[in-house]
Design brief:
The protein is mostly helical and 553 residues long. It is built from 21 helices and no strands. Helix 10 crosses helix 16 and helix 14 packs antiparallel against helix 15. The protein starts with a helix and ends in a 10-residue tail after the last helix.
Length: 553
């Protein structure tokens, strides 16, 4: 309970600091007034989720409970949890902000992400559930050499998780800074402390139920907000879009593509990241092990796809509604004419316009709940990669006890939480949707191709997967570092060394090409043995024979 006391202390100090900051003369221009309803609802949500964590901690006794909720989650429950994982701050705050600033092009984020779900439903969910136990590395190492494959999978997972966490932390810091009147750094520290607590004590059981709670709240809040926006335009989409075109500085151009992505290569690379990245996100793949069988895994994807599709329809209304109702209201603009708190705050300010302080507080609390739930899932996935894949399977060669592995996972969650706070502070001001897109790019360039080839191509060898996957990971990471976002925006160089913002197309092609070439030229005895084991893997993946519950291998 020492950590619980520490979390409470951080919250108290942060809120107190915020109250002082609001009253101080040096309050930042972007910082908003103290929003009492928002803070009250935020504290209610924190209390509820802490209660869920306490309840879950009493039911977490084994490694299977900690990593996979004992495979006790139903398909429908898991569908809501998956939707909760995917409907992150990048979706609610970032995509609505992109539509607010760029109009039509912001829809690409929503449509592209949704297009990746059929891949999960028809190609991966069943086979992954039948082959794996805790992480997708279980599946890719089923017939290949476990040591190299788990090392590659863990490295890729940690890169994806780190980039994804940056987006969530930036969203949390900005949200609280603007709405609660708290310092950005204090807000990020609060989120970090809470996510460490959820993951350390509650594991997958707590994370799942926090996700379900958050998904219901987010869908309910977004639905009410959308109805209130449409009521302003007599429930006419034509009137809504006409009003947005009249207000936006780009006029009718916001209804056409080309505002945010201007060249075909960038558009194709962006689509590649969204479609294939969705099918390679480690914290989403991990959720298929929380259900009892492959049928429940398929059902969970079906439910999640419906919920996410509905959610993105609402985001369209919120984005264009923000243009029509918020863009020219001086109380939401900073001295430079931009949106107070940045474009990420478009949906939040919209709730204030249509329903006042109380609903603003509710939506703010929902947005904060969204961030807390997603960072918890991300942290658990990263901790699992470190403890289950790297420590237990590679360093200890399967000799570690369950309690030892769970202990390493909890320690990893604390380290990841600290790293997330540091990165969240360093990347302050970045669009959260774009930062998450970089995580999608790495997932599309490494996780998806290696997982897909391991499940469907007999010729894949360990040597090919490691060389190709490593090449894809290095290519994606290098393109991000030397691209416009990090090289120019963060490191302040004059021009990027890699000209495109979205590296997925180049990294995915590099990964697949290198993987296939090296596998085809691998004539070793180990490669021949791995090809022979494909038949056993195929039967297990398709029929589920020998996969009752979560299996060890």
């Amino acid at each position: 309970m020492a950590i619980l006391r520490a979390v409470t202390a951080v919250l108290t100090l942060t809120l107190a600091e915020g109250a002082l900051a609001v009253g101080g003369a040096g309050a930042a221009a972007e910082r908003g007034p103290l929003n009492v309803p928002a803070i009250a609802m935020f504290l209610v949500f924190v209390a509820v989720t802490l209660g869920i964590t306490w309840w879950a901690a009493r039911r977490t006794r084994t490694a299977a409970d900690y990593y996979a909720a004992g495979a006790s989650i139903s398909g429908t429950q898991n569908g809501f949890a998956i939707a909760g994982d995917f409907m992150s701050a990048a979706s609610f705050l970032g995509v609505s902000g992109l539509i607010y600033s760029g109009g039509f092009d912001g829809l690409i984020w929503g449509i592209g992400g949704l297009a990746g779900w059929p891949l999960l439903l028809f190609l991966l969910s069943e086979r992954l559930r039948n082959l794996g136990r805790y992480t997708f590395a279980d599946a890719v190492s089923f017939r290949l050499q476990p040591g190299p494959m788990r090392t590659l999978s863990a490295c890729s997972t940690l890169v994806v998780i780190s980039m994804y966490l940056i987006g969530q932390m930036v969203g949390a810091g900005t949200l609280i800074q603007v709405l609660f009147g708290l310092p950005y750094t204090g807000a990020v520290l609060t989120v970090g402390a809470l996510m460490i607590f959820y993951v350390t004590f509650g594991g997958m059981i707590a994370t799942t139920w926090v996700q379900i709670t958050k998904a219901v709240l987010l869908l309910f809040g977004s639905t009410v907000l959308s109805l209130l926006v449409m009521a302003e335009f007599d429930f006419s989409f034509e009137a809504l879009f006409h009003a947005a075109v009249d207000v936006h500085q780009n006029g009718s151009a916001i209804m056409a593509p080309g505002g945010l992505v201007s060249d075909p290569v960038s558009a194709l690379s962006l689509g590649t990241a969204l479609v294939f990245g969705t099918a390679g996100l480690p914290h989403i793949l991990m959720r298929f092990f929380t259900v009892p069988d492959a049928r429940a895994a398929r059902h969970s994807v079906f439910v999640a796809t419906g919920l996410i599709g509905y959610f993105y329809l609402l985001i369209v209304i919120l984005g264009f509604g923000a243009i029509a109702l918020v863009a020219r209201d001086p109380q939401f603009l900073n001295p430079a004419g931009g949106l107070r708190g940045g474009d990420n705050m478009a949906a939040i300010h919209l709730s204030h316009v249509v329903a006042g302080d109380l609903f603003l507080g509710f939506i703010s609390a929902v947005a904060f709940a969204t961030i807390l739930a997603v960072v918890s899932g991300l942290t658990l996935s990263g901790a699992s990669a470190i403890a289950h894949d790297l420590y237990a399977s590679v360093l200890r060669s399967g000799r570690a006890t369950e309690s030892e592995v769970v202990g390493i996972s909890r320690l990893s969650a604390i380290v990841l939480g600290v790293v997330a706070v540091v990165l969240g502070i360093a990347f302050e001001g970045q669009n959260v949707a774009y930062m998450v897109l970089l995580a999608f790019a790495v997932a599309a360039s490494v996780n998806f191709p290696i997982l897909f080839l391991s499940l469907y191509w007999r010729g894949l060898t360990t040597r090919g997967a490691v060389v190709g996957g490593g090449f894809g990971l290095v290519t994606a990471s290098a393109c991000v570092v030397f691209g416009p976002t990090v090289w120019v925006d963060i490191l302040h160089h004059a021009a990027p060394l890699f000209p495109y913002k979205y590296p997925a197309l180049f990294a995915l092609v590099a990964c697949v090409t290198m993987t296939v070439l090296v596998s085809l030229t691998d004539r070793s005895a180990r490669a021949a043995a791995e090809a022979r084991r494909f038949d056993h893997q195929y039967v297990r993946a398709v029929t589920g024979l020998g996969a009752s519950g979560a299996s060890e291998h």
